[in-house]
Amino acid sequence: MASEREPMIRVTAMPADTNPYGGVFGGWLMSQMALAAGSLASREGQGKAVVVSATDFAFPGAMAVGDELSVYCEIAARGNTSLTIMAEAIARERNGESVRRVAQGTFKFVLLDENDRPRAAAQSEKVST
After folding, report:
1. Where are the domains of the chain?
2. pTM across the whole model
3. What tens digit of pLDDT does each residue of 91-125 get?
4. Parallel/antiparallel/unpaired status of strands 99-111 and 68-78
5. pLDDT score at 1
6. Which tens digits make up the pLDDT trace of 49-73?
7. What angle do CA 103, 4, 104 make, to 5 degrees?
8. How far apart are CA 77 and CA 73, in angstroms?
9. Can you give the chain as a three-state secondary structure string?
10. Which of 123, 118, 127 is closest to 48 using CA atoms?
């Protein structure tokens, strides 16, 4: 399944990322999604961005050790000092091309200045990649 989207982050699940039952830990998935969403928030906000909430999480699929995780993000809303980012986690099986959604959720970030105070979002120009 080819995708026109570019992932914000791509990583392989390792044995240390498992829960006591041997599956990939949902907390690890959430942390990878937060890293990806934070990357987009910092890029779009042109500076420091910290997560203030994480909501609407669902884990419709399971990942195995060795699967490749790609996290795709998009901006869902812009506030005066905040960005809300939707993240979708897609796993690709290690030895093939089969893909499935394993998690999705929403992160809200507040943009901070050099004194760690909320600041207005810069009106960024679109940068082509």
Report:
1. 9-111
2. 0.88
3. 999 999 999 999 999 999 999 999 999 999 875 44
4. unpaired
5. 41
6. 999 999 999 999 999 999 999 999 9
7. 10
8. 12
9. CCCCCCCCEEEECCHHHECCCCCECHHHHHHHHHHHHHHHHHHHHCCCEEEEEEEEEECCCCCCCCCEEEEEEEEEEECCCEEEEEEEEEEECCCCCCEEEEEEEEEEEEEECCCCCECCCCCCCCCCC
10. 118
The count of other CB atoms within 10 Å of the CB of residue 104 is: 19
Measured CA to CA, the distance from residue 19 to residue 39 in angstroms comes to: 26
* Class of the domain covering 9-111: alpha beta
**Residue 115 CA, distance from chain mean position:** 26
Looking at residue 82, its amino acid is: S
Cα dihedral 35→40→46→52 (10° resolution): -60
Q: Using CA atoms, how far apart are residues 61 and 35, in angstroms rounded to an integer? A: 20
What is the end-to-end Cα distance of the chain in Å, rounded? Answer: 22
- What's the pLDDT at 5? 87
Structure tokens at 33: 């999604």
Cα–Cα distance between 63 and 77 in angstroms, integer?
A: 29
Amino acid at 9: I
